[in-house]
Amino acid sequence: MDYKNGYSIKPKYVTSVGEVIFTDGTNDVRANQVTCEDYGYTFNASTGTCTSFRYNTKINLTANNAHNIIKGALNTTNVGTENSFLLGVSNTSKGNNQNILITGAKNEIENSLNNTSIIGGSLAQAENQGEVVIGGGGFQEDLGLGLSQQSFIQQSNKTINNTETALLTQYLPLTYIQKVANSVIGFEANVIGVNYGGEGDVGDYGYVQITGAVTFTNGLASTYHQTTTHIVQAGHSGMNITATMKDVTATSFGVHVTGIAETRIQWTASVKLWQNQLQITF
Fold it and tell me: I want to staple 118 with a disulfide (CB 3.0 to 4.6 A). Which of 61, 97, 107, 199 is the partner?
């Protein structure tokens, strides 16, 4: 379908529960009432969604017959969603999701994410494995998802020397935190490294906290401003470690740590993110 005169969005597809998803040519968006009706669809005022037909269900069976619990109107579980729970209105699992939880309204978990949760609010978007998200409601419903939200992510890894190493999200290979275009993200990461062999004493540890913010442009170029604080000084904990937040790849970022030569260190980082994303490119 072509764009109607005067509109910068148009219908893209209809979900299995009848909701009409629009696009601006790049992002999936939801239409307001005027836009919805001008394209010939019905606007459901109670759910705030544009619909092609009415649909409601309590239990949805995915393609491989695994049960998902669905409570509320216009919630969508796409193919490959297993063992998941959606509670609220107009929430979506994009597919190939296992063990996910969504509560609230108009929230979305991206394709192929597992063990991920949106635990409240609206217009949130989860894009990381094992992420826990709270939606901030956005600004206008037709602008998109993830404009205002906070989230929590766990990273971890192991080192055996003093080479700088990126921590892994959920300790999954080559898995890091996803960058978000046209956004400013505040962060706080509490990083703990514990000696489990080699030089020094088993049980020695280091604990640092990274606080700061990063700007991601439309092309995902990044600018970081941050401070690292030793919560427990090396003289008390036994290990002098360092950690920083930085890019990992062109599309991802996360905590990097530097351990100690000939020392085996097990690392964990609890990362809290505060996201403010614009629809204007910069």
Answer: 107
